[in-house]
Each structure stands twice: as structure tokens, then as C-alpha cells.
């Protein structure tokens, strides 16, 4: 999954899902793009908020996010 971009579905355990783009760089860093800002605002994610990402793959790549 390095050096590529793919569509991903992101959601909290109780909220609706949001489609984003996951970009994985050649140095194995992941960036969520196209939708992260709106997702963060609607879920109260700010600086120093702890988020745990649970990646899974069934028919498509998805993520659930625990927010603390």
C-alpha cells in the first residue's frame, strides 16, 4: 500500500460514514484527504484530541475512529 492513493470510508462507531482519500507515501506515512476537515469539525476533533484508527478491508478499505 505504499506510494499509492485509494478511496476509503471513515466513520465513528455511532456516526455516519464519510468518503475520503487515503494516501500512503513511500516512507509508509498515511494521510487522509478530501473530507478530513469536515469530519474533524463535525466530530469535535481538535489539536490534542486522541484518535485511534481501526483499519479493515471487506469489499473495500474502511476505517472506524475512536475519539477521546
Write the layout of secondary structure elements.
Layout: E1 4-12, E2 18-24, E3 30-33, H1 36-42, E4 51-57, E5 61-67
Subcellular location: Nucleus
Protein name: TF-B3 domain-containing protein
Main location: nucleus
Q: Number of DSSP helices? A: 1
Give the total of domains: 1
Strand residue percentage? over 45%
Number of strands: 5
Report, as a whole number of angstroms, the end-to-end distance. Answer: 28 Å
Sheet with the most strands: spatial strand order? 3-2-1-5-4
Per the CATH scheme, the topology name is At1g16640 B3 domain
Using only C-alpha atoms, the radius of gyration works out to 12 Å
The named CATH superfamily: DNA-binding pseudobarrel domain
Q: For this structure, what is the CATH class? A: Mainly Beta
Give the helix level as a range of percent: 10-25%
Instruction: Choose one word for the global shape.
Output: globular
How many strands, what sense, and barrel or not for the largest sheet?
A: 5 strands, mixed
Per CATH, the architecture is Beta Barrel
Q: What's the overall average pLDDT, rounded?
A: 83
How would you spell out the order of helices and strands? EEEHEE
Describe it for me?
- The protein is mostly beta strands and 68 residues long.
- It has a single domain, classed as Beta Barrel (At1g16640 B3 domain).
- The chain is built from 1 helix and 5 strands.
- Strands 3-2-1-5-4 form a 5-stranded mixed sheet, covered by helices on one side.
- A hairpin with a 3-residue loop joins strand 4 and strand 5.
- The longest helix is centred in the middle third of the chain and has 7 residues.
- The radius of gyration is 12 Å and the shape is globular.
- The termini are far apart.
- This is TF-B3 domain-containing protein.
- One of its GO terms (molecular function) is DNA binding.
- It is found in: Nucleus.
